[in-house]
Write a structure and sequence with these properties.
It contains 15 helices and 14 strands. It is α/β, with parallel strands linked by helices. The protein has 2 domains: 237 residues; 280 residues, Carbon-nitrogen hydrolase (Nitrilase/N-carbamoyl-D-aminoacid amidohydrolase), CATH 3.60.110. The strands form 2 sheets. Strands 1, 2, 3, 4, 5, 6, 7 and 14 form an 8-stranded mixed sheet that branches. A 6-stranded mixed sheet has the order 8-9-10-11-12-13, covered by helices on one side. Helix 4 runs antiparallel to helix 5.
Amino acid sequence: MKAFTKISLAMASGLMMAAAWPTRGFTPLIFIAFIPLLYLQDISGDPDNKKKGNIFLLSFLAFFIWNTLTTYWVWNSTAAGAIAMLILNSTFMATVFWAYHFVKKKLYGNKKGYFMLPVFFVAFEYLHLNWQLNWPWLNISNVFSHQHTWVQWYEYTGSAGGTIWVLVSNILIYKLFKAAFIDKTDKKSLIKKGMAVILVIAIPIITSLIIYNNYKEEGEDIEVVVIQPNIDPYTEEFTLSPLQIMERNIPLADSIVTEKTLFVLSPESAIQEALWIHAPGNSISVKKLKAFSERHPECAYIIGASTFSIVPAGMEDDFAARAVYLNQKEESYIYAHNTALMVTKDTIDHYHKSRLTPGVEQMPSWWFLRPLERLAIDLGGTSGTLKGEDNAHVFEHNGIKAAALICYESAFGNYVIDFVREGADILFVITNDGWWGNTPGHRQHLELSKLRAIETRRSIARSANTGISAYINQRGDIIEKTQYEEPAALRNTLKSNDKQTFYVRYGNYLYTASVFITIIMLSVCLVFIVTRKK
């Protein structure tokens, strides 16, 4: 096969992956998007083929196209960081595909071993949820965020089930294609393979639609107000005074709350002043929120803030600790936080964002990645690694427990279930997607919340600075939303729910099993190679 043909096939895979991706993609394409790569792997692994081609470079090309066409909008917030992200993530994915090729060729003579592809990819996605270079945005399972009625069974499998479904379907369709056009298999065998393809794709969709149409929301009614102040993050957020920022938020809330309103939400990083978390009452913004609570004593106001705290003695070596000079004399160490504050008439509670955005809120601590720190975006003087919360923390108000997920955290299904285990009856997302401009980024981010609603069967209220703010029910339906880049205030009623889904109770069992199998298979492969050489 000529190099041009191989490159064209790799490009076809990348283009189909991108064309399937939310929010305006054609989702069914994902079931065939990996087929050109599977064909290239078969050719590269064929011992009789003298012109095999470099499967790593070919798969890198496919994944780079996919990454670029679906997440190019990161460029709007940090151009250099976007380039690093695209190259690194494409390299990681290509390495996973190469590892699949390596094991399939070495252990199975390239004849079998297809099952290792979904195993390796799920293991990689689990890594991508848990390490410093996390970027779960392009976990394959997220492709169904725009077709949430197809994956209601995520409440049992979590999103890992979607990745397995996609890759198994691609493998079965490829084997059908191979049997029909390459191996020239008999008609009876083709019918069997065709039926397997139909069943593997149809049964999950039919099952999901049955669950969707029969699911009844549970819990008591909770009235929630969401505020969308529409503050430009590049100019106004750091130039308007704290009082001006509050004037973009509180009057909107005052205009719409009722005696039944239990929670009011404003977006991430709405408060931009020197707010020390040990003394929040000294903040002008918090005083305004306290005054709001006096007028509306039934309400809890949840709002994002950039906050600081003193590093405890003995923790100065913490990677997130920052050396400063207080009173221009004495050196001290502080933490910076991306915080959700809950202000009521009687209390002030807080939660620090834990799942931090690489290159923006979290710098690499590994020595060989330290140069990437220069690519970080400066968020109003808080560039550098932020200090996150050690555990999921939920707010409680009038007997209702609520989780306040801050921006990027809503992409981590494996972390969101920790809040539900801590008792969260309802989920809130406070975010500032304005950094990306009017691109697919903010729309994709909204869609991810639909999957979190299904996995946990929790209603979600979402406050986004420039949009899209929305309400999502326990089935993943968006029941009301705002327009992008318009000031708005919405009021709606959501159901709370204290029951745990199978996925919440038993967690990431598919991820754990995939990691275990990956380690075993790679170890066996290495031993096999060493013993054969001897």
